[in-house]
Amino acid sequence: MVDTKDFINLERSLSNPFGNFSDGSAIDDDFSAQNSVSIDKKLLIDLQHLSIGHVISEGPYSVVYEGLYKSMPVAIKIIQPDMSANVSPERKVKFQREVTLLSKVKHENIVKFIGASTEPTLMLVTELMRGGTLQKFLWSTRPQCPDLKLSLSFALGISRAMEYLHAIGIIHRDLKPSNLLLTEDKTIIKLADFGLAREDAEAEMTTEAGTYRWMAPE
To answer: Which of 61, 96, 123, 131 is deepest in the core (most CB within 10 A)?
Structure first.
């Protein structure tokens, strides 16, 4: 178990974009105003109980940190962390959609939603999956293939998550190894990243979305 004090000390030493969570003084007022996103207050977290640790992963539009929320290990996804640039309307829409949809789903093979924040920056907090992504796991086992029993277990877990989403009218639209996370013992797989997801499975999808290498050929 990670000590909360260690996270607080590490947070202060990191060159992160927001400084102390409970302060917010490092954030420009103009940015906060432009960054307003409408999210149900019941889904918002109390930043005074949130501490940040080291970086887990980093992409062009977000950075994911390990952290603690009320002594619970969590993953903290910061959207477009560069405070010198305004968050685009498109990123705001994707963030709001991801928070809304993820807060609605409850399944053993879908990453658990903890909460979100819109100030001082857009932030999504979920359960921490210490096993990393399926993509990293597959690369680590090369050139050998993963155990057949484990592979079948993963396939069933993914199928159950997708079946559940479709049953409640949600289409994920970005299923790929980097959006599938593993528990620390690498026995359970969970679906993550709902930024491209859509509600209403009966509606006709006219916009192409997803990651090119993992999209269906049709």
So the answer is: 123
